[in-house]
Design brief:
This protein has 174 residues and is of the alpha+beta class. The protein has two domains: 3-69, no CATH class; 85-172, Arc Repressor Mutant, subunit A. The protein has helices at 55-69, 85-95, 105-112, 116-124, 153-165; strands at residues 3-8, 11-17, 22-28, 34-41, 103-104, 137-138. The strands form two sheets. The protein has a four-stranded antiparallel sheet, with helices on one face. The chain is globular and about 45 Å long.
Length: 174
């Protein structure tokens, strides 16, 4: 059940639990576009669950419920990430990685004509890490080097969980 955090000026935010440890913090703007869908630690939100009164936010909550049931579900709701032209190129390349597959930072860098470090920085800046699936980007030899700008083991465990949920074999993950 989502936690409704705010609703003003026709925008709204909610926290949707995904795992016991992690939730997605969703924000929609006045036009109903998703502005952000960032991972947060579930323990940071102790507010009682409230149904969303914002129709577009409710649609995103429904999209996430569908994804929880079927990890190959692609959202039909509208979102448009805001970023530099370089970030946009990287995010487009990430979005093109097929379900259940991965690419290394070096492979992604080659695809966008860059180097691995700037690609990693664009991954960290991704405002929609579940919908622009940066968990599909890994280090050389299957190493999990970070996720959503974090390197702590619990964040790497979330990345591993997302990849395994898509059917990527855990024996290939370092």
């Amino acid at each position: 059940m989502p936690h409704l955090l705010s609703s003003h000026f026709d925008s709204a935010s909610a926290v949707v639990p995904i795992t016991a440890a992690f939730s997605l913090y969703l924000t929609v703007d006045g036009e109903g576009r998703l502005c952000a869908a960032q991972w947060v630690e579930s323990s940071d939100f102790d507010a009682p669950a409230l149904p969303s009164r914002h129709p577009r936010l409710a649609q995103w909550v429904t999209e996430l419920q569908a994804w929880k049931t079927n990890p190959s579900h692609q959202p039909e709701a509208q979102f448009a990430p805001v970023g530099s032209p370089f970030q946009q190129r990287v995010w487009k390349a990430i979005a093109a990685i097929p379900y259940g597959e991965v690419r290394t930072y070096a492979q992604l860098a080659q695809a966008v004509g860059s180097h691995p470090r700037p690609v990693a920085a664009a991954c960290r800046a991704n405002p929609f890490p579940l919908f622009i699936p940066c968990h599909r980007v890994i280090g050389q030899r299957g190493k999990l080097t970070g996720y959503a700008g974090h390197r702590a083991p619990k964040w790497l465990a979330l990345k591993r969980w997302l990849l395994q949920r898509e059917g990527y074999p855990s024996l290939h993950l370092g």
